[in-house]
Design a protein that fits this description.
CATH topology: Amidase signature (AS) enzymes
Shape: globular
Radius of gyration: 21 Å
Number of helices: 17
Strand content: 5-15%
Largest sheet: 11 strands, mixed
Distance between the termini: 27 Å
Length: 474
């Protein structure tokens, strides 16, 4: 079988349009890769190779008829099991299937399907997306492809998304991000993840966690692939190929990165800060500039979140109104976290929303001083399943996993994580680039300049040790 899925998405799209590879061949290659590693990694809640082949053949028929519908036409893609997807069950990480109304396509999925992308399946999520670890007591915890013999978590809540990229069964993965749920799994699995400004993409057709912070997002292996997918799916109707050409004009030597020594570079896991700083030092040697800035809003909004968040209150209201029967079967860890914040009085809820709005205005003014604020995306090594087996272990690691990502959601900003190094445990380290709301095009241009100068994940990290992962028990 000819191998093509190691190539970039824009490259593969060009080959498809030229008739040099078929969507069916790509789907068969994705199926083969899943067959080799899928049982070990556990990326998918619902894997359906029959449907994938049907979609791929339909894409090929459209190519033959002269209809090249869109940039993601024929591209293998996975969808988080928080998105409705007609013809597929939805569990949202819970032990029982959600009502049929939640299976309808929303605008983001509809955009993917209009392009005749090949959907490989629905990837695992943390129950109701409530957690940054990636564990799920009902369906099991996906295995990080970089963990080798150790079962390390893949990050949450889009826990299967990065794994689907790592095993090679998907080139684009749809996720959602309320407190880091795209960037965390992208970072710890050595991928790129884009957190989009709230409101830019519709959340209709996605099971909500907290509407004040929920956003869809995209994971892919490189910034170029992520930018290409973003342009293809964005409601603005961007031309993906022209968009890549446009953002390629941004040079690293023209950029100033903001760095804040407090909070974002403290209490980091072994090798995390060192790896991120080495990447920044290399960027400086290649022309970028660093500027120290004070960004207290990150620590302030993170501290507020730990006291019992607006997020918990909004989620509890959703459960009470829409899915009350799902509360009794909820994982005790998640139930505890929901209850911690779900009892916020209405006056306190309003007070906290007003506080967040003030902090959004002040941080936006600070970020105008630099091209992007930079920090390690995830401050710790992703834990093993043994380290999160107790409630205390789970809570401790979960708080650390989303420490640098949650404030981005609270402050209504946009962000991109880019793989830059490996830590002392050999796990991927991501560098998070943060910008003001509505800056996605500029954010991707800056990330692409960094990637072109430093290299993609394959150059900087190597390849995940898939062959070292123990065989799944049958």
């Amino acid at each position: 079988m000819a191998q093509h899925l190691h190539k970039s998405v824009p490259n593969i799209a060009a080959l498809l349009r030229a008739g040099k590879v078929s969507a069916t061949a790509l789907a068969e290659e994705a199926i083969d890769r899943h067959g080799r590693h899928g049982a070990q990694l556990g990326a998918y809640k619902h894997w359906d190779e029959r449907k994938a082949l049907v979609q791929a053949r339909a894409a090929d028929a459209a190519f033959k008829s002269g209809r090249t519908l869109a940039p993601l036409h024929g591209i293998p893609s996975s969808v988080k099991d928080l998105f409705g997807l007609k013809g597929y069950p939805i569990f949202a990480g819970t032990p029982k299937r959600l009502p049929a109304a939640w299976e309808a396509d929303g605008p983001v999925v509809a955009a993917l399907k209009r392009q005749l992308a090949t959907i490989t399946g629905k990837t695992h999520t943390v129950e109701f997306a409530f957690g940054g670890i990636g564990s799920n007591k009902h369906w099991g915890t996906p295995r990080n492809p970089w963990g080798g013999k150790e079962h390390r978590v893949s990050g949450g809540s889009s826990s299967g998304a990065g794994v689907s990229l790592g095993e090679g069964s998907a080139l684009v993965a749809l996720g959602s991000d309320t407190g880091g749920s795209v960037r965390i799994p992208a970072s710890v699995t050595g991928n790129v993840g884009l957190k989009i400004t709230i409101g830019r993409w519709s959340c209709d057709g996605i099971v909500p966690l907290a509407p004040s912070f929920d956003t869809p997002g995209v994971l892919a292996r490189t910034v170029a692939d992520t930018a290409y997918a973003f342009a293809a799916l964005d409601p603005a109707g961007l031309d993906a190929d022209a968009f890549l050409d446009e953002i390629a004009r941004t040079e690293l030597s023209s950029l100033t990165f903001g760095i804040c020594d407090s909070f974002m570079w403290e209490n980091l896991g072994p090798g995390v800060g060192e790896g991120a700083k080495r990447a920044l030092d290399e960027a400086v040697r290649k022309g970028a500039r660093l500027k120290k800035i004070d960004v207290p809003e990150f620590a302030e909004t993170y501290a507020l979140h730990l006291k019992g968040s607006v997020l918990s209150a909004e989620f509890l209201q959703f459960l009470d109104d829409e899915l009350p029967a799902w509360k009794d079967s909820m994982d005790a860890v998640i139930r505890t976290r929901v209850q911690d914040g779900g009892s916020i009085p209405a006056t306190e809820y309003i007070r906290r929303q007003q506080f967040i709005a003030r902090k959004h205005r002040s941080v936006s003014a600070r970020l105008a001083e630099v091209d992007a604020l930079v920090m390690p995306t995830v401050p710790i090594t992703p834990p093993t399943v043994q380290e999160i087996a107790t409630l205390d272990g789970y809570i401790q690691h979960n708080r650390q996993m989303f420490r640098h990502t949650c404030p981005v959601n609270n402050l209504a900003l946009c962000a991109l994580t880019v793989p830059v190094a490996r830590d002392k445990a050999g796990m991927p380290v991501g560098l998070q680039l943060v910008m003001r709301a509505g800056s996605e095009e500029r954010l991707l241009a800056v990330g692409y300049a960094l990637e072109r100068a430093l290299g993609t994940a394959e150059k900087r990290l190597g390849k995940p040790p898939l062959n070292a992962i123990p065989k799944a028990r049958t």
